């Protein structure tokens, strides 16, 4: 039942935003009385925080799967696969992406703290994972240079993520191609400097 409630909350949140996603609408979608939700969640905020955590974990788990799947590939292939994984994950769940964007801007104070904590955990994993791949391919790279490359990747990934909501069709495909070109240029510079 909790999964059904979270899924319904995400759908309602994607459709109506925080204020429009009422417990009544969520309960109706699941086929229960609104008061029954309180058996599982203390209030609307705790339900949305649980839904937010699910979105964050789904993304994190997908990035971990991609990193594991490409662990024996070149570092450039790893970065490219992760970039395309961001696209596939969020395009494949546009409702979740819309809900995520709405939740980030919601008036729930815990959301900002939870997002910060999650992003710190995700960034720590990303840095460790990508640092190992970079150092393996370019052992002479300084830690400062590794940090710079990872930050550039994060900026490119964030741009592609937000592009999902800003561009459609060919416009979005062009954004992904440009992101690919930026990664290719970055790795061409690394090869020239460290290979």
What this model shows, in words?
With 195 residues, the chain is an all-alpha fold. It is built from 9 helices and no strands. The chain has helices at 2-20, 23-30, 34-37, 44-69, 75-92, 94-104, 109-137, 143-166, 169-194. Helix 4 packs antiparallel against helix 5 and helix 7 (109-137) packs across helix 8. The relative contact order is 0.10. The model has no long low-confidence stretch (mean pLDDT 91).
Task: Tell me which oligomeric state these chains represent.
Answer: single chain
* Topology, number of strands: 0
Largest sheet report: none
Shape: elongated
Report the helical percentage.
Answer: over 70%
Radius of gyration: 19 Å
Mean pLDDT: 91
Task: Give me the secondary-structure category.
Answer: mainly alpha
| Tally of individual helices | 9
Proportion of strand residues: under 5%
Low-confidence stretches: none
State the end-to-end CA separation. Answer: 55 Å
Order of SSEs = HHHHHHHHH
Features:
9 helices, 85% helix
Brief digest:
The chain is built from nine helices and no strands. The protein is mostly helical and 195 residues long. The protein is elongated and about 65 Å long.
Set out the fold topology.
Layout (H helix, E strand, L loop, with lengths): L1 H19 L2 H8 L3 H4 L6 H26 L5 H18 L1 H11 L4 H29 L5 H24 L2 H26 L1
């Amino acid at each position: 039942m909790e999964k059904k409630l979270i899924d319904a909350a995400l759908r309602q949140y994607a459709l109506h935003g925080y204020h429009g996603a009422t417990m009544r609408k969520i309960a109706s979608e699941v086929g229960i009385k609104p008061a029954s939700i309180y058996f599982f969640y203390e209030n609307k905020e705790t339900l949305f925080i649980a839904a937010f955590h699910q979105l964050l974990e789904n993304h994190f788990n997908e990035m971990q799967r991609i990193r594991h799947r490409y662990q024996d590939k070149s570092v450039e292939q790893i970065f490219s696969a992760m970039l395309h994984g961001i696209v596939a994950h969020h395009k494949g769940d546009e409702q979740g992406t819309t809900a995520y964007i709405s939740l980030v801007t919601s008036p729930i104070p815990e959301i900002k703290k939870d997002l910060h904590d999650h992003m710190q955990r995700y960034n720590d994993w990303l840095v460790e994972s990508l640092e190992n791949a970079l150092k393996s391919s370019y052992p002479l790279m300084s830690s400062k240079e590794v940090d710079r490359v990872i930050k550039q990747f994060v900026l490119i990934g964030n741009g592609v993520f937000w592009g999902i909501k800003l561009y459609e069709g060919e416009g979005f495909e062009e954004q992904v191609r440009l992101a690919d070109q930026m990664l290719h240029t970055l790795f061409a510079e690394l090869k020239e400097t460290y290979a």
